[in-house]
Amino acid sequence: MSNSSDKLIIAGREFTSRLMVGTGKYADFPQMVRAIEASGAEVVTVAVRRVNISDRSKESLLDHLDTKKYTLLPNTAGCYTAEDAIRTCRLAREAGLSDFVKLEVLGNEKTLFPDNEELLKAAKVLVAEGFTVLPYTSDDPIVCKKLEELGCAAVMPLGAPIGSGLGIRNPHNIRIILETVKVPVIVDAGVGTASDAAIAMELGCHGVLMNTGIAGAKDPIAMAEAMNLAVRAGRLAYLAGRIPKKLYATASSPGEGMIE
Amino acid sequence: MQIVVNGEERTVAAMSVLAYITSLGIDPQRVAVELNLDILPKSDYATTELKDGDRLEIVHFVGGG
User: Fold this and answer.
1) Rounded average pLDDT over A111-115
2) Whole-number Å distance between alpha carbons of A41 and A27
3) According to the model, what pLDDT value does residue B63 have?
4) Which residues of A touch B62 (CB under 8 A)?
5) Given B34, B42, B65, which is nearest A91 (Cβ)?
6) Any idea what DSSP says for residue A106?
7) Which of A11, A4, A24 is nearest to A211 (CA)?
8) How far from A197 is each of A98, A131, A204, A207, B9, CA to CA, in Å?
9) Tell me, what DSSP letter sits at residue A38?
10) Are B62 and A51 within 8 A, CB to CB?
11) Which residues of B touch A46 (CB under 8 A)?
């Protein structure tokens, strides 16, 4: 690629890949590892859950994920209050190696839409405690601006509900968010197929985060590669600068020199 | 004595958090521990003795989005 110097920078950390992927919903760990490999992602999200103290026979995620190769981004999935999300982040920092957290505070079980009031509360506390906070939020420019002002290292508006595969439902809001904040904008959730990821990147987003779009595909490894290409293609197209849309045709071939 | 580990009541002998975690077959490097709602730093596992009524949360990373 011609723009190898084009990096995603979050809180001073440089990443070559603009695709972040989840580690949930795979058939097994080997499939997950191959899909992450194919995606080219450097940042992978993980969840924080109780260890099963009665049955220690199951393999653990970290037996399969090379933590030297990937930056783990622990999430607060399943948290419905700022308090629970903050507790989870503190545990994640202790279990992991970095201050990076994907902060999500949910407001409703059916939609998994964020509770932005609780999200802002949690973000404030976590930033003060030195976390690098990447918040999953609504595609709301006002909330994104507030998250930036609180010191979040990026904002991660949803494209559509988590796991819905509906794509980028409100590209206009995403554009306004891009004009509103200076921190990286990473579309998180809603991507169903490669073109959705490309659209996010063509809008000028700095990255895309997905899990179900890859893990839920018939062939997750092939879809991971498709997403890898789509994110890169979308980024290149954004940097290249698309032509304006026009209602009528403009001929590509010269009008002069036609045979008579 | 009685303690609560990940929501389950357990009867345990007097020992350190490190000894207890290890007895469960858990790699202390791969988990985080909350003792009575406060994070317990890894460096304190060996020197922290379990007390009757303690509430432990032992968590690790699992697949997620």
Assistant:
1) 97
2) 19
3) 96
4) 24, 46-49, 61
5) B34
6) B
7) A24
8) 27, 28, 11, 9, 47
9) H
10) no
11) 61-64
Q: For all residues of chain B together, what is the average pLDDT? A: 95
Residue B32: closest CA among chain A residues belongs to which residue? A95
* Beta strands at B2-5 and B8-11: parallel, antiparallel or unpaired: antiparallel
Which ipTM score applies to this complex?
Answer: 0.95
3-class DSSP state for residue A45?
A: strand
Q: Are strands B55-63 and B32-35 parallel, antiparallel or unpaired?
A: antiparallel
Tally the C-alpha atoms within 13 A of residue A33's C-alpha that lie toward its C-beta. Answer: 12
Contact map slice: B 1-60 vs A, CB within 8 A: 5-8, 24-26, 30-34, 37, 39-42, 57-60
Burial (0-12, 13-18, 19+ Cβ within 10 Å), B44? middle
* Ordered alpha helix ranges (H), chain A: 29-39, 82-95, 116-128, 141-150, 171-180, 194-202, 212-215, 220-240
CA-based radius of gyration for chain B: 11
C-alpha to C-alpha distance for A1 and A8, rounded to whole angstroms: 15
Beta bridge partners of A102: A75, A134
**Chain A residue nearest residue B28, CA to CA:** A95
Residues of chain A found within 8 Å of residue B33, distances taken between Cβ atoms: 94
Measured CA to CA, the distance from residue B34 to residue A3 in angstroms comes to: 45
User: A160 pLDDT band (50/70/90 cuts)?
Assistant: very high
Q: What would the DSSP string read from start to end of B3-53?
A: EEETTEEEE--S-BHHHHHHHTT--GGG-EEEETTEEE-GGGTTTPBP-TT
Chain-centroid distance, C-alpha A124: 21
Note the pLDDT of residue A3.
60
* A16-42 confidence digits (pLDDT tens): 999 999 999 999 999 999 999 999 999
- Which residue of chain A has the CA closest to B43? A94
Predicted confidence (pLDDT) per residue in A139-149, tens digit: 999 999 999 99
Please indicate whether, in this complex, the C-beta atoms of A162 and B6 are within 8 angstroms of each other: no
